[in-house]
């Protein structure tokens, strides 16, 4: 790594730490890592939250991007009710295909089961969830209903705001104004072997490579190796070179990442625009089951 990239990394991390953060009055918050993530205790998510609690959680999400709630006992309806306090529930196009695996036929719950017969596990690559949608989901809420008895199965997250801020200024200027195509067929057909319903096609949408968050006004990288097929304004070789460099930039910067360790009663809530995540499949052939609920907002990422 060159001196200049080292300097950009350090400057971005220093600016992240310098942000003013007020204390929280309605729950306990403990950072999980210096640049990403926080653990929340002192809330019962099985009950509706008060306005002050939800306001503080929205502020915590803007500041930490990934929130891990410990000690929760939720069923599917309580899981959805908590998520619904932050937006409109998303219906995943593959939810119906996961009924047998997860044991639910609820279209607002995406369930999966990974075990000794699995050829892959959901999310085993750095990605934003369902970035192929025209209005990509903002918040994801995940609980693991069966943990591997031998440990493992962490979920890793990467801070896409820091990933952007750590780039050199000329590179940032180059990326501004570029858009990329996010294709569901690349992630679900090429990745999982899933097929759309007869007469239908998986969604594909064009989004800015560098997006602005409508909540915070901060910029973040919005391309990922699971869904992004190419940058529209560049030739094939140019697009591939830029995307591969950005993917490597996300993977190798451990200073921008956190690994969340699961324990019974954990629910994860994360900003799906300003982070990417990766399900760590290090527990084969043991089993790991989970259910995800996600929410959409009226206003999405903008250029």
What does this structure look like?
This is TauD/TfdA family dioxygenase. Keywords: Dioxygenase, Iron, Metal-binding, Oxidoreductase. GO terms for molecular function: dioxygenase activity. The protein has 303 residues and is of the alpha+beta class. It has a single domain (3-296), classed as Clavaminate synthase-like (Double-stranded beta-helix, 4-Layer Sandwich), CATH 3.60.130.10. The chain has 8 helices and 16 strands. The chain has helices spanning 3-18, 51-64, 76-84, 99-102, 160-165, 169-175, 184-192, 236-252; strands spanning 28-31, 38-41, 66-69, 88-89, 110-114, 139-146, 155-159, 179-183, 204-208, 210-212, 219-221, 228-231, 257-260, 267-271, 275-279, 288-296. The strands form 4 sheets. Strands 1, 2, 3, 4, 5, 6, 14 and 16 form an 8-stranded mixed β-sheet that branches. Strands 13-7-15 form a 3-stranded antiparallel β-sheet. A 3-stranded antiparallel β-sheet has the order 9-8-12. Helix 2 links the parallel strand 2 (38-41) and strand 3 (66-69). The longest helix is centred in the last third of the chain and has 17 residues, at 236-252. It is globular, with a radius of gyration of 19 Å.
| Class from secondary-structure proportions | alpha+beta
Q: Give a count of the beta strands, DSSP E runs of length 2 or more.
A: 16
Strand content range: 15-25%
CATH class: Alpha Beta
Extract low-pLDDT stretches: 98-102
* Average pLDDT taken over every residue: 90
Overall body shape: globular
Give the name of the CATH superfamily: Clavaminate synthase-like
Tally of structural domains: 1
């Amino acid at each position: 790594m060159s001196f200049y990239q080292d300097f950009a990394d350090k400057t971005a991390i220093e600016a992240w730490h310098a942000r003013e953060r007020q204390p929280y009055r309605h729950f306990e918050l403990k950072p999980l890592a210096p640049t990403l993530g926080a653990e929340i205790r002192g809330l019962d998510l099985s009950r509706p939250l008060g306005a002050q609690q939800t306001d503080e959680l929205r502020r915590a999400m803007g500041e930490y991007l990934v929130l891990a709630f410990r000690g929760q006992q939720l069923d599917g309806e309580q899981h959805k009710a908590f998520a619904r306090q932050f937006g409109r529930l998303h219906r995943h196009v593959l939810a119906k295909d996961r009924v047998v695996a997860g044991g639910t036929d609820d279209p607002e719950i995406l369930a999966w089961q990974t075990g000794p017969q699995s050829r892959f596990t959901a999310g085993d690559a750095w990605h934003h969830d369902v970035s192929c949608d025209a209005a990509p989901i903002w918040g994801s809420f995940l609980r693991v209903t069966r943990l591997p008895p031998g440990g493992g199965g962490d979920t890793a997250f990467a801070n896409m705001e820091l990933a952007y801020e750590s780039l050199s200024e000329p590179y940032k200027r180059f990326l501004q104004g570029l858009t990329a195509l996010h294709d569901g067929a690349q992630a679900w057909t090429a990745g999982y072997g899933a097929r759309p319903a007869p007469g239908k096609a998986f969604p594909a949408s064009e989004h800015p490579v560098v997006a602005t968050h409508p909540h915070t006004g901060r910029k973040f990288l919005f391309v990922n190796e699971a869904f992004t097929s190419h940058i529209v304004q560049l030739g094939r070789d140019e697009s591939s070179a830029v995307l591969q460099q950005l993917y490597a930039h996300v993977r190798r910067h451990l200073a921008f990442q956190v690994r969340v360790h699961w324990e019974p009663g954990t629910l994860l809530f994360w900003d799906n625009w300003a982070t990417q995540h990766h399900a760590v499949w290090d527990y084969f052939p043991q089993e790991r089951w989970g259910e995800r609920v996600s929410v959409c907002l009226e206003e999405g990422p903008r250029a």
